Description:
41% of the residues lie in helices and 23% in strands. It is globular, with a radius of gyration of 16 Å. The longest helix is centred in the middle third of the chain and has 23 residues, at 94-116. It has a single domain, classed as Rossmann fold. By secondary structure, the chain is an alpha/beta fold.
Amino acid sequence: MLCAMRFRDRADAGRQLGRCLVDRDIEAPVVLGLARGGVPIGYEVADALAAPLDVVVVRKLGVPGHPELGMGAIGEDGVRLINPAIVRATGVGEDQIAAVERLERVELDRRAGRYRGDRPRVELSGRTAVVVDDGLATGFTARAACEVTRRLGADRVVVAAPVASVDAVAGLSESADDVICLHTPRTFRAIGQFYDDFTQTSDVEVVRLLSLAGASG
């Protein structure tokens, strides 16, 4: 399937990714959008696959003083992944890691409560979890999401994104049963470079899309 190298917005990217995934004949899929930017993608993918949509909340652990540099990630159900290479390179201590994790865990819990509300999680036992994001730069938060879905009983885990770096795809091969991306360009600076509109997804939009998917499902 030939797709444009750029996407108009997340909805456009999600529709293209959905068409690609339909051809994969994924058995008993449940789509899980990484909050926040993965949810608009996941909404379109779930529609294409006629699958339920849920959210998975993960948070990057940024290096103190350089929050854009991820030294790990946390997810729901106590998932915690640390990147030892980044920790060694930056000299971050365990106390510093713990302090960052405490702050990010508060935000993770807030988001999970806001997005899911009173709705129970979609059951993953016996299903294929399709973990969707708007792009994979390092793939580390997606790895945390894979761990969350495995703890929740998913039979298989597929990670899907419109665009990903080569390194992210390689790193995810140990966490996911399959990684599906429309584009893995050799030059990858930032996810937003592949979108005409990469406006940040709001909490309100995440809640709206999850509600729409629930009503239609």
